[in-house]
Structure formats: structure tokens, C-alpha cells
Amino acid sequence: MAQITITEKQENQSNLFYVQSAIADIISQVGCKLESVNMGSRFMLKLNVDDIYLDIVKCEIIDRLSEIVAINYKYKYFKKEIGLKGLTEDENEILLASLISADLEDDKRYVREKIKNSDFLSLDGIYNFRLQPLKRKWADIVSYMPVCFVNSQLKDFIVYLLENKRERVYVDGGKVYDWHYRRLNRCELLGGNNLNIIREVLLSNCGEVDISGSIPEKDEYYLKEFYKDKICFSGKHYS
Q1: Confidence check: pLDDT of 82 > 50
Q2: What three-state secondary structure class fits 209?
Q3: How much is the pLDDT for 235?
Q4: DSSP state, residue 215
Q5: 238 has a pLDDT exceeding 80
Q6: Are 83 and 45 in contact (CB under 8 A)?
Q7: DSSP string, 95-153
Q8: pLDDT band at 239 (very low <50, low <70, confident <90, very high)
């Protein structure tokens, strides 16, 4: 029997709820015991798993923790450091989501390599002391951002990022699914309840969107702005 322990500061306990929710199915399948502990200033998840399933469970956990750093921590960093003029609040949130998505897989790979051999994972400690090159990379991105950014620049920037993307995501009943039809919940790591569909789609790094049913007006507007003829509504291409 092996044990995996994950801790995070109390104010970020929602990150561990994200992990807990994401691994619920696999825990149920392998009979893994999960315990959550509120330690006052910190929050902890402890998992006891049979050795035979350790690699499977740990791989899933490491992947989710790398998402937390590459999305939640990066979002908070950019939110604090990037102060652009010229965009609405909604447009600024879309820009932050697109900046995160641009290097998302590379950032995840870097974090995975740094934490894959650990069984005791202090997420904020790892971020503060073991990921300095990643933070320097983010600082470089911030340094390249202009003081002013207008709507047309935002559109051009996102269209450029989507240029070589090919995979398709599905929006069904207000929920977003990847091309394997697995539910995507990365937007939870950004917080807020506005523009969840467009932000989730951007974080998916997809190039095409298939939409079934109605979606909020703002989400539909921005999807049409950025994805243009790469959108299908109920099997029909938007034009």
C-alpha cells in the first residue's frame, strides 16, 4: 500500500477540490481511499492506494496538479501583473484565458517533470521554490504586453493562436467536451461564472467547435468572432 499526500494553502483549497473531483472515477474503480483534512492554514488530501494501481492513480494526479499550476497559478500571476487599458472586463478575461492556453501544454509538461517523482506534494511550495524558470518565462510574456490593447487586436491575436489548431470540441447543454467526449472543467481554475463556455473552449486548445442547443448570448458572440467558419451549430457550419 502506497500513500500520496497533497497539500495547499487554505485560501487555495478549491484547487484540491478540483483534483478530488477529477480523480473521483478512478478512485472508485481501483478502491483507493481518499481523506481530506482541514489543517487550519492548510488543506490536505491523503490517498492510500494499492501498489498495483499506484502508477495509474499518480499519473492522473500529477496531470491535474500540472493543470492547476499552468492555469490557476498562471491566471493569478497574469491577473496581478498585466494591467492593460482598452479592453472591457469580459475582454480582459478572454485575453487572460487565451494567453494561458497559448503555452498550456508546454507549461504542463514542465511542471509534470518537476513533480512526477514525488509522493508528498506541497503545491504552493513547489510553485514558489521549484518552478522559478517557469515564472521567469511568464514574466517575459508580461514584459512583451503593450500598455493598451483594443478589441480588434484581441480578435487578431486569438485568431492567430487558433490558426493551426485542428481538434474539435463539443458544446452540449452548456457543457464543453473534448474530441473524446470527455467533460472539460478547466475553467473552474479561472474562477468566476461569466463567459465560461468561450473561456473553456479557449483552454481546450481546439480549432473547431460543434455546438448543440442554446448557449449564453455573450459566449455565442465571442465564439463567432474568433472561430468564424470553424463553428458548427447543430451540424451546420456558421457563416
Answers
A1: yes
A2: strand
A3: 55
A4: -
A5: no
A6: no
A7: HHHHHHHHTHHHHHHHHHHHHTT-SEEEHHHHHHHH-HHHHHHHHHHHHHS-SB--HHH
A8: very low
